[in-house]
Amino acid sequence: MDAIKIDNLAYHYEDQAPLFKNFNLTIQAGDWVALVGHNGSGKSTLAKLILGLLERDDGKITVYDLPLTEENLGKAREKMGMVFQNPDNQFVGATVADDVAFGLENQQVPSQDMPAKIEAALKTVGMAAFADREPHYLSGGQKQRVALASVLALQPKIIILDEATAMLDPQGRAAVLQTLKDLKKAYGDQLTLIMITHDMDEASLADRVVVLDDGKLVLDGTPAEVFEAGDQKLKDLGLGLPFSVQVSQALKVQPPHYLNQQELLQWLLTLNK
Amino acid sequence: MAINFEQVNFSYGQGKLAQPVLKDISASMPSGEITAIVGQTGSGKSTLVQHINGLLKPDSGRVVINDFVLTSQTKEKDLVKLRAQVGMVFQFPENQLFAETVLADVAYGPVNFGMGKEAAQAAAKKALQTVGIPEDIWDKSPFALSGGQMRRVAIAGVLATDPEIVVMDEPVAGLDPKGQADLLNLIENLKGQGKTIVLITHQMEQVAALADWVVVLHHGEVAAAENPLALFNRPLDWYQEVGIDLPRPAQFAEDLHQGGWPLGQRPLTVKALASQINQEVWGDE
Q1: Backbone angles phi, psi at B126, to 5 degrees
Q2: In Å, how far from its chain's centre is CA A76?
C-alpha cells in the first residue's frame, strides 16, 4: 500500500526558478522516512505540497489512493498530521488537554468521546500527568510531545514532522525521538512517519533516507545504503555524516559495512575480545 | 579586562512571589577568549548573560564588565556606555530583522548609536564582510535569504557597532550543518580579532571544539567554571546531577569502557576517539 505517491510534481515560488520539476517519490504505508537536505533544498516545501498548503503547478499527489484535489483536500488532510519546528507557534488551548481537544472539535468528534481520546493521546507521548497544565510552562521537548499528541488524537495515517527537534535542548530532543520510536513500535504499519531533518544522526533512526538538493532527489535508500554509497555526496552537500560513520572512517581498519552507533560499539567490543 | 560576576543574586518578581534565578553567582569570563555558558533549560543561562549588557541588573552583588560596574543602583542613562561595548545576539535573531534591505537592517544599529549615515553604512558593509554575506545581496530584502544567511545578517547588525564583547544565545540552533559550520568559523574569527565571546549552548561538541572556558549553571548556581578538558573529565555521576551531556566522542569512550575497555583521558573529538580505538585494537600509535 502506498501512503503517498507523487508523480511528475512541478512547483515554483513566485518570481523564482522552478524548485520541483518532474519530481517523483513514493512512500510505503508504515515507513519511517527521513527527508533530509540543507536549508532551501525543498524539503519543507514538499511537505506543504503534500498537505495541500501550497498549490502545485503540475503533477499528481495521491494520499492513500485519494488524489489530492480541491474536492478531496479535506478528506486527504484527515489522514495526515503535521508537527512544526517552533514549539511556541502551535498552541491554541489554555491547558494541555484543551489543546488536544481543539483538533478533535474541528473534526466534530462528539464531546462525550473526547476525554478518553485526549487521555489516550497524552498517555502515548508520556504527557498524561500534564493534562491540566498551561502549555506556556512546559519545556520545549514537552511542548513538542503535546503537539504530537494533538496530532495523534486525530488518528492520522501519516505524521509529518518538520524539523520538530531543531529548537530543542538535548534532553528534549532525546525525549521526542524516543516518543517517535515508541509510536512506530505501537502502530507498526498503521502509521507512516515522515521526518524532515538536517541532522544525520536523527535520519539514521529512520527505515529510509531521502536526500533532496534543490528540489532533486539525489540519494534514496536505507540508512546503510545512503551512508555507505553517499558519504562523499553528503559531504559535498554540506550535510555531514552520522557520528558512527565519522568514527568508522577514522579507524585504521574500517568495519565491513555501515554500522549505526550501537552496532559500531558491539563490533569494536567483539574485535577486542 | 574581563567580565566578572561578584556574588550576584537575581530574582524575577518581588516579595513573596519572588523566584530566585541567580544565586550568589561569582564567575569570570576572560577577555579575548570564548566562554561557553551551559546548563539545563531553566538553569539561569539567559538571565545570566542579560546582566552583561545591563538588560537586567543584579538585586545584589555586582557585575564588572571591563571598566563598567553594574549594580542594582546603576542608572538607565549610564547603560548606554555599557551597551556600546557589549553586542547581544539573542536566540533566533533573524526574527528581529525588519528593514527593506540587508544593508539598511545592518546599518540600523550604528545609526541608533549616533553614527552619521555614511559612517553607519561603512560600518554595516564591514560587518557584512565579516560575516561573509556577499555584496550582491546587500540590496536584497533580508526576508528573501536562506535561514543561515538571515542569521548572519542579524549577527552583522550586532557587529556593526564594533562591540568589544559579543554575547550569543544559542547562535547555531536550527541551522543546517553547513550553516552551523560557517557560524562556528565566524565565532573563531571574531575571537581572532580580539573580541571577547560569551556563548550559550546546549551542544557539548561545540563546547569541546570552541570554548576556552566554561561556566556550568545548575539551578541558578555555578556548578563548575573551568576549561573544557577539566570539565569533561569529571566523575560520570556529576553530569547526571547537573543535567549536561558529555561530548559524543567522550560518551562513546565511556560506552566502550562499560564494555571492559580501559579508559584514559576522555576524548573530546572524533579524531581523538579514533586514535584511542586504533591504539587499543591495532596497537597503532
Answers
A1: -60, -45
A2: 18
Compute CA distances A204 → A35, A197, A201, A222, B87, whole Å.
11, 11, 5, 9, 38
Domains of chain B by residue range: 2-245, 246-285
Q: Report the residue of B95, B176, B263, B276 to disrupt the A interface, i.e. the one with the largest count of A CBs within 10 Å.
A: B176
| C-alpha to C-alpha distance for A256 and A262, rounded to whole angstroms | 15
Residue B73: enclosing H or E segment and its boundaries?
A: none
**CA dist list (Å): A132 to A22, A90, A142:** 48, 17, 14
DSSP character string of B138-163: TTS-GGGS-HHHHHHHHHHHHHTT--
Domain ranges of chain A: 2-230, 242-273
The three grid cell numbers given for residue B260, joined into one nine-digit string: 571492559
CA distance A100 to chain B (A): 25
Q: Do the Cβ atoms of A238 and B243 come within 8 Å?
A: no
Question: CATH says A2-230 is which class?
Answer: alpha beta
Cα–Cα distances (Å) from A43 to A35, A163, A210, B137, in that order, read 7, 10, 10, 24
Domain B2-245, CATH 3.40.50.300 — does that match?
Answer: yes
**Residue B203 near chain A (CB below 8 Å):** yes
Which residues of A are catalytically annotated? 163
pTM: 0.87
Whether residue B78 lies within 8 A of chain A, CB to CB, comes out as: no
How many angstroms separate the CA atoms of B75 and B98, rounded?
29
Q: Does B163 touch chain A (CB under 8 A)?
A: no
Given CB atoms, is B252 within the 8 Å cutoff of chain A? Answer: yes
Kindly give the confidence (pLDDT) of every residue in chain B, 285 residues in length, as a single tens digit, with 9 standing for 90 and above: 599 999 999 999 888 888 899 999 999 999 999 999 999 888 999 999 999 999 999 999 999 999 999 999 999 999 999 999 999 999 888 888 989 999 999 999 999 888 999 999 999 999 999 999 999 999 999 988 877 889 999 999 999 999 999 999 999 888 888 888 889 999 999 999 999 999 999 999 999 999 999 999 999 999 999 999 999 999 999 999 999 999 999 999 999 999 999 888 999 999 999 999 999 998 865
CB proximity list for A71: less than 8 A, separation 6 or greater: none
Cα(A100)–Cα(A91) distance, integer angstroms: 9
Chain B closest-CA separation from residue A249 CA (Å): 9
- A254 grid coordinates: 574500517
Q: Please answer whether residues A56 and A45 qualify as being in contact, where contact means their C-beta atoms are separated by less than 8 angstroms.
A: no
Residues 6+ apart with CB under 8 A from A239: A36, A37, A38, A198, A200, A211, B176, B177, B178
What is the predicted ipTM?
0.85
Chain A contact residues (CB < 8 Å to B): 38-40, 85, 139-140, 163, 166-167, 169-172, 198-200, 238-240, 243, 246-247, 250-253, 261, 265, 268-269, 271-272
First-last CA distance in chain B: 42
